[in-house]
Amino acid sequence: MPPRAASLLQGDRCGHGPGPGPGPGWRVGGELHGEASCSYLPLRKRLSVDGKCPAPRICIWECDGEAGDITCDIVAAPLRRSCSARAMPPPPAPLFRRMMTPPPSRPRPPPTQQVAEEVAATGARRPGETICKGHRSYGLMLNLQLGISYSVGKSSALPFRKLSPSDFDPREKVWTRFPPEGSKLTPPHHSVDFRWKDYCPAVFRHLRKLFGVDPADYMLAICGSDTLRELASPGKSGSCFFVTQDDRFMIKTVKKAEVKVLIRMLRSYYEHVCRYKSTLLTRFYGTHCIKQAGCPKVRFIIMGNFCCSEYKIHRRFDLKGSSHGRTIDKAEQKIDETTTLKDLDLDYAFHLQKFWYEELMKQIQMDCTFLETQGIMDYSLLLGVHFRNDFSMSKMGVPQFNGLPSK
């Protein structure tokens, strides 16, 4: 029976860094270092990378006789030549963090049309309900797209400058009115009259640049001809979730108190993500508010979608490190790749290479310390698992998207 492999995806930055390759060897700068032999390389041919994506990824292996006991390696791009080398110590942590940062020339995700074609070809089910005319959220979506287009277009026309303390001021917000007939600043539209508020626009412009988000791609994903999709709320907050058709960005409605907390901690958050490029914290791209005449204000944040990957995610988990109520109330046969599982539903053991484990735990500790200093206590670790192929899953006796993998 062939070994079962899966790719562990912790957000869209997952696996961008050097680490222990197959066996005791290291792969750094395209060369293999360590006691790796030529005869061993073909056995690790099933890498969770392809020729189009040279970035290394984490690969999970489950071998014969070890069901439920999974080994997790960091693998590099497919090896195209055999080689051997002597043992070499692992690279220092600064190099690891530096390599984990996605390079500016990183290939952009495929266009929406290509994503749709891939989904149709693979039979993947895309979560959410497409927002069309007549949908309850259609008007809100139009307002949101108009506001984002205005804000990003306005900021992009200005020279990029260094941030000043006043940019982080909670009172740093801009109201703009969008009448249906248009104005000197806003275009005419088919929605109702509304006002648009932009919180700390200069700071979020810097964050988008720091996270490698191109302004044109950002506007096209949210404000393009493709509509958004509305997701069912996975939590108890009652918030509405929207996702772009290319799955790169998520939009979440939040309460006034949540906006206040985010803006209050914005300076510390900015400093943290600048210092720790491999942070696991959510990537925030913008905070806004919409006020329609006669309606309550709708506040929302725009953030990165950790589930956006070139690989299909077969299992996703929301982990809080608690056992109280941490299981889903859903029949096993109804569980599929869109189901968000919890702590007690996780029946895998991930065996990481020592260096990767230490770096991962160190980063989690630093992120948790940051959240504690900000008085944040309700947070969780999102985990996505990609199995190499459905054939491997069936060979291991794992139901295809209709239940948890058997131990």
TrEMBL record:
GO biological process, alphabetically ordered: phosphatidylinositol phosphate biosynthetic process
InterPro entries assigned: PInositol-4-P-4/5-kinase_C_sf (IPR027483), PInositol-4-P-4/5-kinase_core (IPR002498), PInositol-4-P-5-kinase_N (IPR027484), PInositol-4/5-P-5/4-kinase (IPR023610)
Region of interest: Disordered: 1-26
Entry's Gene Ontology cellular component terms: plasma membrane
Keywords, comma-separated and alphabetical: ATP-binding, Kinase, Nucleotide-binding, Transferase
Class of enzymatic activity (EC top level): transferase
Top-rank taxon: Eukaryota
Domain named PIPK: residues: 136-407
GO molecular function: 1-phosphatidylinositol-4-phosphate 5-kinase activity; ATP binding
Enzyme Commission code(s) on record: 2.7.1.68
Pfam families in UniProt: PIP5K
Protein name: 1-phosphatidylinositol-4-phosphate 5-kinase
